[in-house]
Every structure is written in structure tokens, then in C-alpha cells.
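quick q for whoever's on today - can somebody do inverse folding on this one?? i tried earlier but teh output was garbage lol. C-alpha cells:
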């Protein structure tokens, strides 16, 4: 199965809030497909997602059977002690805990922790997640002191490895859990309530900065409701519980345990579950001023993709109804250039070409017949939507006007040609043409989301650009190994020792770019897409590294550390970049950077050996290239 497509569609269903029944049907269909194709890896991926779905929707009767099958698959695949095994055991234990089987859950958590501590780096976020889940188990068992210990450990891991603590929702969620553990503690130590309220305030500030409307925010609001109720402020408690309940209803439905418990808490403080506010429109209890103003009435958390999908759902059906003969053949979505197509947009991205917009795609025949009329009908749609305004032609940036426009009606081949230079992906027997397509270009052609495509021509063309031939992919992997070896392992320490900070800085940049590309290539573009252009490379790498069974998940943290130390390493005596504390010695930062690059190389070799891409344990990556290239069938692609 196409794991990336499966996860993307599941994310879209949940993100569009299509309801738990739609998600359940999709998961059941995916599971049946994986089993029919005897795809055990695909089946394990679906089962992991299903375990989480059963837990949050309260469908506990199915949990034991799904957990048993997932654990059985681990043994069949020989993955019990791997990172995938750790993840599956955590998911199974968490679902079993929610289903009322704490004994088995504790056993699985213990196995997962033993494997995790052996296979994962000490600041790996999955370790923090494991400690968080253990804390919930101890809370269920009434051992709140032990729960606080586990949460304190999780918080230390997350804070130690976070690259943006002020917007880290995992830190915020852990703070919420820690506050709840303090409230539930029977020890009654002085100041515990005050500490819990401070932790909640910090967590809510994080959610407010991010603008997220999700189950973690619901948990934080419910905890705030509990804090207000304990202080006797029932009106404030009811407001917090009501907003939490509105979010829970959208995410999990009224039949979930989360809805039932939150509704009971709301009723206990005199609130009315039938008069709920909108989860997106109700102001957060904690407000942090934003440096960028958003349009009046606009939900600050709405991404460009969500805005586009909502615009399509509001006006798309009526638009297509004007073209009854071609309507089943019109594809709709949002793909191409623009931060919103990558899902990385935020308030700072709304300063150019942002608004409620769509791409509508037609075959050449249909475009000749109705293209102009469909464009005119699209242009006539309301420009104002949910507080956002679609920019007029003269308001757009120069690179998105006229022939370079990014939204509206397109002929399918012309759309992809405008991005890549090709109307469809080059065939595998022309690898030289693939090599001329930068990864960022391929990312722009394959990003975003397709909301509707009954004909399938658009999706098939788009998917074609994801199918990079294996010979090309392996040749690029070899190139990236060579660049990390040459720029990072060889030249960074030499340039630092020589005192040429500028050259060292550029070598570090080349190393980071090659390493980021390498991670995407070894995870395979058909499953995870391509590395985008420089602005979003680290964000894309962080997102990929957090996915289930991602290869080389630790590279992003190593790169963040290298980049953080780059100034001190390259310019140790510059008054503009003072080097405090442990880095006061000029050579210290350079040695740390060199050591981190070697650590990165070791991660690559360990991964390649585990996947049998190499039998060598040589960590100078230039010597790993022949092992990778041995699988390339096109001889001239070797040693590029």
C-alpha cells in the first residue's frame, strides 16, 4: 500500500472533521486492502492508527483483538526490538490502558521502555511520549506521585531537545498532564495547586501561539476547568469546560468517553452541554498578542489548505452544477507554489497571495470546451470568506500573475509544465531528465491536497512525479553521501582549523542540505514526498521525522545542534558572536560540530546496515557510496 497516501488521507479526514464514522470506514477499508494484498507492513501501519482511533472514540471492545494482531505482526516481521516495535508496543499499551487492562498495558510499556532506552537517543521525543503514557497508567492506578515522576522526566526530555519551546505543543500537553497529576495527588503538599495553575497557564500560552484547535487543547481547557472549579470559580470553570466539550464533539463525537466525561464535568459546575460555543470562534482563556494581525473574524489557526477546503465545500458544488456535462471530470484541490500548499503556513505567511482559493483542473479537451467559462465563474465567486480576502490580480506578487498564476482553472498538462517543464513525469528509461528536476521542483508539483478527482487523470499525473526511478534515487543518495563526506567530514574541520570561518560556514550549509535531502530520499518520495525549497526544509524534516517508522529520525535533531553551534564554531573570536560558558575556548565549538557531523554519519551507516544497504561499518560516508551504487542497474549513474 501507499503508506504516505494512506496517512495523508487519514489526516485529511480528521483535519476536515468529517466525523468518526467516516474515519472508521476509511480505516476498515485500508485494513482490508492491506490484508488482501498480503502487505504486512501496510497492515501494521493501519493497525497502529486504528489502535489510536479506537482509544479516542471509546470503542474499547475491539482493542484487544487489534493489539494482538499488531504484536503478532511485529514478531512475523522480526521488528519486535526495533523503533517500529517500540511505537507499536506503546500504541497497544495505551489503547489497552484506556480499555481497562492496566496489567497488560504495564507489561507492554515495560518492554517498550527497555527497547527504547537501548535504541533511541536520550532526547528522542518518543521516549518522552512513553514516559507520558506511563504517567497516565500510574494515575489510573492511583499512584500520582509516580505519575509526576514520569511526567517530570518527559518534560525534561522535551525541553532538552526542543527547537522552539514557545510553540512546542508536546511540551504544552505534558504540562497539562503534570498539572492534572498535581490536582489528583493525595499528598496535599503546599503549593501544588499554584504549581499546577502555573503549568496550565504556560501550556495554554503555547496553544494560543500555535492557534491549534485539537484534542490536546481540549485537554488543557478541561484541566483549566478543573482548576477553576477547585478555586470555587464555577462560572469560569463552565466556560472552560464548554469550549473543551465543543472541541471534543468535533474531534471524537458524542459517543466518545472524552465527550461523556467532559459533559459530566460541565454539568457539575452548572453548564449546559446543549449550548456549546464554536471551537474555532470562542476566544482562548489565555491571549498572547500576535506580531501579525489577521483579518477581522478570521480563525487564527486555519491553515491555507483548511481554508481552501472550506471554500470548496461552501461554493464548489454550486460552481460545478453550472457545468453538468463536465462536472464529474473536473478535479479540485490546492497544489503548487506557496507556503500553504506545504502545510507550513502561519500568520507570517499571509503577507502575499494568501486567501480563499482553489485550483480546478481539466483535461485538454474539457479545457478547450469550458476553460474560459469555468474561469469566469470561479472569478465571480465571493472574494471574502471567513474573514479572509482573495487577492485581486493587481494585488498579487509579480511571480503569480498572468501566465504565472497559481490558482484558478488549468489544463492538467499545462499546470505541471508550468512547475516542472514537463506535462507528465519523464519515463524511467530517461533518468537524465529526472536528474535535471530539482527536488524542490518535484515537491511543488506533488504537495498540497486534491479534494475531488473522479476522473483520476490529475491524480495519476501528480503521482507520476512521485515515482522517481530507483536508479535515480540511489544515484542521488550516493551524491548526498559524497557531499556529507566531502563538505562535512573532511572540509568543515579543516576550514575551522585554518581559520576560514566563511568557508566553514558554507561547508556546514552544504552538509545540512545534503543530509536533509538524504533523509527524504531514503524514506522514498513515493511515500513521503520530496524535500521542499530551503525555507521549509527543516520544518519538513521535523514533520517527516515524527512519522511512524520513519528512517533516520534522529538526523533532524543532530542538524539542529550543528546549525545552532555554527556561529561559535566558524567565528569563535568575533565580537558579534560571543561564545559563553563551555564554548569560551576557540576550538571547543569546532570540535563539537565535527563530533556531531560524525554522529550524523554514524546514524546513516547504522540505518543502511539495518536495511542491508551496506555490509560496511565505515563511517566516512564516501566509502559507503559503492555499496549503495551496487544496486544501480544503469552504469553511467554510478559515482556521479
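ok took a stab at it. sequence:
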Amino acid at each position: 500500500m501507499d503508506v504516505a497516501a494512506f496517512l495523508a488521507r487519514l489526516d485529511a479526514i480528521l483535519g476536515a472533521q468529517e466525523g468518526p464514522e467516516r474515519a472508521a470506514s476509511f480505516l476498515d477499508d485500508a485494513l482490508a486492502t492491506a490484508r488482501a494484498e498480503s502487505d504486512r507492513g501496510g497492515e501494521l501501519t493501519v493497525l497502529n492508527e486504528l489502535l489510536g482511533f479506537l482509544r479516542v472514540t471509546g470503542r474499547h471492545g475491539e482493542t484487544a483483538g487489534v493489539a494482538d494482531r499488531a504484536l503478532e505482526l511485529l514478531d512475523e516481521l522480526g521488528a519486535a526490538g526495533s523503533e517500529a516495535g517500540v511505537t507499536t508496543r506503546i500504541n497497544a499499551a495505551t489503547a489497552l490502558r484506556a480499555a481497562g487492562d492496566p496489567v497488560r498495558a504495564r507489561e507492554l510499556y515495560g518492554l517498550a521502555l527497555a527497547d527504547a532506552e537501548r535504541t533511541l537517543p536520550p532526547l528522542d521525543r518518543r521516549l518522552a511520549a512513553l514516559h507520558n503514557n506511563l504517567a497516565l497508567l500510574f494515575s489510573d492506578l492511583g499512584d500520582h506521585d509516580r505519575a509526576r515522576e514520569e511526567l517530570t522526566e518527559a518534560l525534561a526530555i522535551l525541553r532538552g531537545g526542543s527547537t522552539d519551546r514557545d510553540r512546542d505543543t508536546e511540551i504544552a500537553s505534558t504540562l497539562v498532564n503534570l498539572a492534572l497529576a498535581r490536582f489528583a495527588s493525595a499528598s496535599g503538599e503546599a503549593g501544588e495547586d499554584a504549581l499546577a495553575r502555573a503549568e496550565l497557564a504556560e501550556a495554554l500560552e503555547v496553544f494560543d501561539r500555535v492557534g491549534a484547535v485539537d484534542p490536546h487543547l481540549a485537554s488543557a481547557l478541561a484541566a483549566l476547568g478543573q482548576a477553576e472549579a477547585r478555586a470555587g470559580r464555577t462560572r469560569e470553570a463552565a466556560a472552560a469546560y464548554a469550549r473543551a466539550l465543543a472541541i471534543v464533539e468535533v474531534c471524537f463525537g458524542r459517543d466518545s468517553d472524552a465527550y461523556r466525561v467532559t459533559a459530566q464535568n460541565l454539568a457539575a459546575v452548572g453548564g449546559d452541554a446543549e449550548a456549546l460555543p464554536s471551537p474555532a470562534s470562542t476566544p482562548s482563556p489565555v491571549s498572547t498578542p500576535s506580531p501579525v494581525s489577521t483579518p477581522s473574524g478570521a480563525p487564527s489557526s486555519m491553515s491555507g489548505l483548511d481554508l481552501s477546503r472550506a471554500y470548496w465545500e461552501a461554493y464548489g458544488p454550486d460552481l460545478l452544477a453550472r457545468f453538468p456535462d463536465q462536472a464529474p471530470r473536473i478535479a479540485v484541490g490546492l497544489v503548487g507554489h506557496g507556503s500553504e500548499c506545504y502545510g507550513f503556513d502561519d500568520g507570517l505567511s499571509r503577507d502575499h497571495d494568501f486567501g480563499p482559493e482553489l485550483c480546478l483542473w481539466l483535461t485538454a479537451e474539457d479545457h478547450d470546451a469550458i476553460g474560459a467559462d469555468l474561469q469566469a465563474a470561479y472569478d465571480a465567486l465571493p472574494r471574502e470568506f471567513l474573514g479572509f480576502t482573495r487577492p485581486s490580480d493587481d494585488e498579487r506578487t509579480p511571480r503569480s500573475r498572468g501566465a504565472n498564476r497559481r490558482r484558478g482553472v488549468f489544463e492538467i498538462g499545462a499546470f505541471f509544465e508550468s512547475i516542472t517543464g514537463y506535462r507528465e513525469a519523464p519515463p524511467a528509461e530517461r533518468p537524465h531528465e529526472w536528474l535535471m528536476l530539482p527536488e524542490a521542483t518535484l515537491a511543488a508539483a506533488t504537495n498540497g491536497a486534491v479534494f475531488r478527482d473522479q476522473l483520476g487523470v490529475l491524480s495519476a499525473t501528480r503521482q507520476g512525479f512521485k515515482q522517481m526511478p530507483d536508479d535515480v534515487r540511489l544515484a542521488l543518495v550516493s551524491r548526498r553521501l559524497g557531499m556529507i563526506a566531502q563538505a562535512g567530514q573532511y572540509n568543515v574541520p579543516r576550514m575551522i582549523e585554518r581559520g576560514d570561518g566563511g568557508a566553514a560556514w558554507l561547508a556546514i550549509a552544504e552538509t545540512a542540505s545534503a543530509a536533509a535531502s538524504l533523509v527524504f530520499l531514503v524514506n522514498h518520495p513515493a511515500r513521503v514526498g520530496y524535500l521542499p525549497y530551503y525555507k521549509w526544509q527543516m520544518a519538513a524534516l521535523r514533520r517527516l521525522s515524527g512519522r511512524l517508522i520513519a528512517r533516520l529520525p534522529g538526523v533532524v535533531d543532530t542538524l539542529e545542534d550543528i546549525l545552532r553551534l555554527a556561529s561559535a564554531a566558524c567565528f569563535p573570536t568575533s565580537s558579534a558572536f560571543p561564545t559563553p560558558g563551555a564554548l569560551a575556548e576557540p576550538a571547543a565549538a569546532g570540535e563539537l560540530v565535527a563530533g556531531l557531523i560524525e554522529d550524523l554519519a554514524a546514524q546513516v551507516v547504522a540505518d543502511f546496515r539495518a536495511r542491508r544497504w551496506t555490509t560496511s561499518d565505515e563511517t566516512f560516508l564516501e566509502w559507503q557510496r559503492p555499496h549503495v551504487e551496487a544496486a544501480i542497474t544503469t552504469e553511467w549513474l554510478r559515482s556521479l
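fwiw The longest helix spans residues 470-498. also The longest strand covers residues 331-334. so keep that in mind when u check it
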